[in-house]
């Protein structure tokens, strides 16, 4: 955490007059970005991006009309094993975005808003592997982990309970329908956003 804070401060100084200075400004609004990426590997140091999706949450409203949904050009590491998870084949990525253009779109969509997701640190780690070499900084945004928010709320109601933190089980407990196909970036981003809003609105069933 200390290292991240120091690096973010260094990045802010380096980019204070640059095109991405807005990324480092304190955020004072009421919007959050729900983010999900699909990758080729579970190892964040090896994974390549296949698709990126994000949707805005404003207060307790999921703004599905304000979303980002990008499929990338086929990475070399796309294999049968990863296809079994996200079901995105090489043929599905024809005409996909080149990674630098996709990352630029993502930065402008996110801005300096907080980023929320399910195991979001994994997505951020992979994204930063590609963002830092190209743009000279890592994402400085505050992050919110859905599973931790859910666990904390459940335990406030019942401290002895250890909740199941699997994605599908959290959605089931919160009464949130799965949007689209599981492991599709946009479907998971919207589902995650709906779960987060449900956490904000009322008690969690245990």
Automatic annotation (TrEMBL):
It comes from the Bacteria. Keywords: Exonuclease, Hydrolase, Nuclease. Residues 31-205 form the Exonuclease domain. InterPro entries: Ribonucl_H (IPR013520), RNaseH-like_sf (IPR012337), RNaseH_sf (IPR036397). GO terms for molecular function: exonuclease activity; nucleic acid binding. Transmembrane segments: none annotated. It holds the Pfam family RNase_T. The keyword Hydrolase applies. One of its GO terms (biological process) is DNA metabolic process. This is DNA polymerase III subunit epsilon.
